[in-house]
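Q: Entry one of two.
A:
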Amino acid sequence: MQLHNYIGGQWVKPANGRYQQDFDPANGQVVAEVPRSDAEDTRAAIKAARQAFETWRKVPAPKRGEILFRVGTLLKEHKDDLAEYMTREMGKVLMEARGDVQEGIDMAFYMAGEGRRSFGYTTPSELPNKFAMATRNPIGVAGIITPWNFPMAIPTWKIFPALICGNTVVFKPASETPYLAYQLVKIMEEAGLPAGVVNLVFGSGSEVGEILLNDPDVDLISFTGSNETGRHVASTAGQHLKRVSLELGGKNAIIVLDDANLDLAVEGILWSAFGTTGQRCTACSRLIVQEGIHEALKTRLAERIRSLKLGHGLENNTDVGPLINQQAVEKVHRYVEIGQSEGAELVVGGSPVQDPILTDGHFYLPTLFAGVTAQMTIAQEEIFGPVLSMIKVKDLDEAIRVNNQVAYGLSSSIFTQDVNNTFQAIRDLATGIVYINAGTTGAEIHLPFGGTRGTGNGHREAGTAAMDFFSEWKAVYVDFSGQLQRAQIDT
């Protein structure tokens, strides 16, 4: 299937006529042919979004919400098909793909409701016969740049709050997952979104993304991706005083104390470390374990990890799917070799899959290291693959220090049955998300999502916090005294 860009309400071929192929990472089969757009397509999309903004911002927010409600209904109707497309294009297990689509459904309905709850506030004026209030206002054209690992959830986290606030959008999805972006925009078109309000441009960051960062008609950028690219986005867009939201990496840890329910902890660790093949910004890659239960937990995990079945995500018995591409396989293996060279104990895994049935895909064995120290490379840098490192500690205080001694601060978790430990962890874990007796993944769309330190630049996605980024406050004063009153002036 050949995809087209969506610009000004029309599906159009790229102006340069260039295409590239989109592959299933589990078997190398072609999913679609995708435009390799350039500056001409991108500027056309920006122009369409700018023109549509003047009309869209004046559409009453409840009416904008009604369109998003129809989007959510259509996503729900097509959930199974969308999940299958996602597994074929991105590789995650079908159950996880359904969850990815469900997040999009939830966000559509949630933000549709915000069309009637986009509250401002009133406040008493310091002067007589004067009324004071604050209202939310749209900003303009939003450049939305999304990654491949959550090809439905993350775009909807960004696009839907942008729309409900009255902004228009130019959407550049990841080159690895264009087909889900195409399906999402088709659904928004079917739901009745006016022409130009959302525009879709396929292409590389160097050709499409750079235009979004530099074009003066793009007012804000919402980006999810690597820390390195995020720094470039911030510095480039910042030169033009654009508003920028960055959701970057994670080096998330699960703490397991001696009093933990080990059966529950093992399940939470396996899901957090190897769900989505470790390709989540919230994936657990560090396991901080109190010394009293370290060996027992290591033995249990090794046994369970060896039993995980790799395969195509559409197969019912698959536990772990492929990595996104061969470059990801090579990157993961480099980190495994670094871990071994720095003295970590390779307990299980540690190599690309040799099974001849899987040789056409990008598979890597789920991997467990023990004997890892807090400063080793594999305990500090984001690997973004199925590699888990065990770090032994004496007590909760040391566990919290180890958790916080990384460049990132997205998600953390603790398994304990002691309420005192629980509340100390809630207070002291320096991450944007904290889980108690659960893994590091599983954020819900009505709570703020984001992290501290190198994970981003302080903005949050999801919940009402998302609207803080996609809107700006306007203070309004209505003086009905019939005379000039000068605030802050002594009389």
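Q: Entry two of two.
A:
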Amino acid sequence: MQTLIRRLFRQPDPPAPSCFECGYRDSQREGWYDRKTGELAPGFAIGPDDICVDVGCGSGGASMFAARQAAEVIATDISPDVIAQVEKKFARLKSRWQTFVSDTDPLPLADGMATRVVAMEVLEHVESPDRFVAELVRVGQPGAKYLLSVPDERAEAVQRRVAPPDYWRPPNHVRVFAKGELESLLQRHGLIVERHYAKSFFWAIWWILFWAADQDLHAPEQPLLQCWTKTWDQLLRTPRADHVRRALDDAMPKSRVIVARKASLSKHSPSSRSQLVTK
């Protein structure tokens, strides 16, 4: 009888999280999307006085965070459909925002107008990384902060073996950045690298399983992906979750992330590019 009563009154298992919910919680544990500190990423705070340009905004996660921090937001993407979806999200917020369909060559923005510039998971798609970064630097004010990320070469090496050939053709991934290559690119254009770190073993494996399951990006997750998401969700509930997660992130992250800064010039500051890079 007691066993029957326990079964009748047992709380139902919580619904399995989506991959996006799980990935969001995974990122939050590393200080991403922190509304209290205003940090979109560790070391990259956004506030009401900022003008944030989100280049290649995609689904608009960074743009929405910046808007909720009361910053003025300018979101750009090469896809008109993407921009239309982001505009619907902006319309629900009381915020200052603009959108542009742009390939960033050039950006339809004035020189030195932004205090925060975001370009996450974009550089691997562009024909000329140097021209792209030059545009990002052009629109930033002196002292502006930059948040950039690219897929890690280790995760990309596995994807190279399992993803279909179209994944490696325009407009998809056309290049892989080797270790240190992104830092060198940014420094060539006068940016000062303040922080860099690896991120998201969870998404690295999710994408590998995505190809294995022949998953449609716009369809519900298949059982293989659901199992992986549920496994990671269970890991995040364990006492040693952060220790294990960071070890795996170091071993094979989905992305490498850099926070950088444009030099602040004054009458006493050096002005040559070589001096700015080595400051």
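A: Comment on entry two: Residues 32-45+103-201+250-278 form a domain with the Rossmann fold fold (CATH 3.40.50.150). Residues 223-236 form the longest helix (14 residues).
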